[in-house]
Amino acid sequence: MQATAKKTGQAKLGSLEELEQLRGELTAAVDPDQTLIVVCHGTGCVANGSPGVTEALKKALADAGEDIKVVPGIKTTGCHGFCSRGPLVIIKPAGIFYQQVKPADAEDIVAQTIQKGETVERLLYKHPQTGDTLSTTEEIPFYAGQQRVVLQNIGQIDPTDIEDALRAGAYAGAAKALTAMQPSEVVEAVTKSGLRGRGGAGFPTGVKWGLAAKHGDVEKYVLCNADEGDPGAFMDRSVMEGDPHAVVEGMIIGGYAIGANEGYVYVRAEYPLAIKHLEMALADARALGLLGENILGSGFNFDIRINRGAGAFVCGEETALMRSVEGKVGEPVPRPPYPSDKGLFGKPSVLNNVETWANVSRILERGWEWFAGLGTEKSKGTKVFALVGKVNNVGLVEVPMGIKLRNIVMDIGGGVPGSDHFKAVQTGGPSGGCLPWEDADLPVDFDSLIAAGSMMGSGGMIVMDDRDCMVDVAKYFLGFLEEESCGKCFPCRLGVPRLRETLVRFSKGEGTAEDIDDLYSLAEAIKMGSLCALGGTAPNAVLSTLRYFRDEYEAHILEHRCPAGVCKDLITYSIDPEACTGCHACFRACPQNAVSGEKKKPHTIDESLCIRCGMCMESCKFGAIQVV
Questions:
Q1: Most distant CA pair in the chain: distance in Å?
Q2: Distance (Å, rounded) from C-alpha 255 to C-alpha 42?
Q3: Strand partners of residue 400
Q4: Fewer CB within 10 Å of terminal CB in the chain, N or C?
C-alpha cells in the first residue's frame, strides 16, 4: 500500500501530470476573494505573543456567530519581515496591515474589519516621517521598496502545510528539471542565470555544480549550510521557518544536476522552529513522492537528512562544516582539493547556503533569463538582508542587487531615529566592514562592497548612529571572532587576540600613533596568512574603521577622549543643573548610589563611585545627564 501525504491524503505522485493535477485541484478549492486572517508566527512575532493573538482571534470569531464567512479561517505563516512591528495580522484579500496587535485587539478586529469591512485605526501603520496612516501592506515603504524572490511565499503560505506550498507553486521547478531537462542542462541554466552563492563568498553556483558534475557516476553529496551564526542575522532562519519547501526543492534540483542521491541540511540546534518546519516539509514531501525513490517517475532517487550543529561559527566554513557532518571536530582543512572534487566523506560535494538553494527553485521555475535580468551585470538577482541596529524599521528585507545603501537604510528602513543620516553601516556580519555615510550612494553588490572594504557576507546589515564608537565596534567583533576561532592556524589563533588587545588599550586612551600603523600591518598579515575565511576576514572590522574613521582612533590615543561617549575609561557623566528637575529617577536607577540630591533640587554625580553604566542617562526624561 502506498504511503499518503498526511495533509492531502494523496497517494504518491507518479508523474508531472499528477503533480499538476493535484496543484490544480488544491487551487480550485480555495476562493481568492474570501476573507482570510493571516497571523505571523515567525520567531520574532511568536516571542512578542502572536500565538496569544491567534487564540484570541479564534475565540472572537467563534463568539461572533455563524454569519461570518471566513474561509479557511486563520492562517499562521512564517516571518513577514517587519519584525519591529510585530505581532502582525493581515486581513486578506484587502491586504489590511495591523501591527503590534495584542490579544485584547481581537474583538475589535472581528467586529469592525471582518463584520463591517472597516479598519481599526489604532492598529494601522503610521509613517514615521509624514505621520500618514497607511492601511495596506503595499502602501508601507518597508514593503513597497522591496523586490521579493526568495521571500515571495513567506508570509503568504502556512509553512507546515504542503497543500499551501503546492498552491504557491512549490516543486514546479524541480518537476521541470527532473522531467524535461538533462542534468547538464540544469547546470547550464543555473550558470547562465548568474547566481552567485549567498553564503558570503559569492562564488558562481553553476560553476561549482559543474565541477562536481564532471566526476560522472560516482557517489556525491549536496549540502545546505544553515549554520547561520552572524550576530544580528536571521535571514536563513526565516526562510527555513517560513518556506522550507523552497530549500528542499532547491536541493532536489542540485542533487539531480550533479548526480547526488543524498543531501544534508546542517542547521544549528538553536533554531528549533526551523528544524521543526524542515522535518515536517521533508516528511510531507516523502509521503507525496517528491523525495525518495523514483521522484515523479523520473527514475531519480534523492533524500535529505538534517544534521544539527552545536553553534560553532567556524562550522559555517564549508570544509569545517563537512568535517562536522562526518562526526569530526569542526575545523577547516587546506584547499585544494576543493569539496567539488573531494568533500563530504571524501566524495565530490556541493555546499550552498539556504538562500542560494531557495533561489535555485525560482530560477528553474521561471527560467534563467528572468533571473539574469535582475540585479547588476556581475551580481544577479536579489539579496535578503537582516536590517538591524539604529534604524526605524528593523526587519528582513529583500532588494535587487545594485540598490543604493541609502535606499535600504533611509527609505525601506525608515531612516535613523533622531537623525537625517547614519554614521556607519556594517555589512557582512562580524567578518564584514563598516561603511560611512559618505558611501550612502554605494551600490550594494558583491564587488562594490569588497572594493569599499566590506563584503556581502550572508546578509547581516547593522546600522549605527553618532552614539556608536567605531573603536568599540571593532573591538566587539574581534572579541566575537577570537572566541569562535578554532585555533588551528597560527595567524588566526595568535593574531586576532593581539588585534583585540590593542583595541582594548586604545579604548582606555593608551597607545601611540605608531601603534595604529602596527595595528594595520598586523591586520593585513592575518588576512593574508589565515587558513580559512574566518581568519582571513576577521581584520575587516579593523581595516574598514581605520580606513573611514581613523580620526576616532587618534582621538582615543592622542586626545584621550571617545567622541561617541562610549568607552568608559574616557568619559564622565555629569548633571546639568539647569535641566535637572530633581525628579529622583537617576537617583533610583544608579546601582552604585553615585547620584545624590534632594527631591525637586538639582542632583550631582560622585565620579569616584560612578561605574559609567549609563543607567542614569537612560532613566532621565529631561536630557539633564551629559557625557563628557
A1: 84
A2: 29
A3: 382
A4: N
DSSP state of 380: B
Cβ proximity of 278 and 321 under 8 Å: no
Strands lying side by side in the sheet with 35-40: 70-77, 35-40, 89-92, 96-98
CA 85 to each of CA 394, 419, 575: distance values in angstroms, whole numbers, following the listed order: 8, 20, 35
pLDDT over 70, % of the chain: 97
Q: What is the pTM of this model?
A: 0.92
Of 284, 249, 285, whose CA–CA distance to 363 is shortest? 249
Q: For the segment 244-293, what is each residue's pLDDT rounded down to a tens digit?
A: 999 999 999 999 999 999 999 999 999 999 999 999 999 999 999 999 99
DSSP string, 62-131: HHT-TT--EEEEEEEES--S-GGG-S-EEEETTTEEE-S--GGGHHHIIIIIITT----GGGSEE-TTT-
Continuous segment of H or E residues that includes residue 498: helix 496-507
| Rounded Cα gap, residues 141 and 151, in angstroms | 17
**Of how many residues is the chain composed?**
628
Neighbours of 294 (CB within 10 A): 12
At CA 231, angle to CA 229 and CA 234, rounded to 5?
70
Q: Which residues contact 545 (CB under 8 A, 6 or more apart)?
A: 424, 433, 434, 470, 471, 473, 474, 552, 553
- The lowest-confidence range among 62-71, 100-109, 219-228, 447-456 is 62-71
Amino acid 21 reads: Q
The DSSP line for 198-214 is: TTTT--BHHHHHHHHHT
User: For residue range 212-231, what is the model confidence (pLDDT) as tens digits?
Assistant: 999 989 999 999 999 988 88
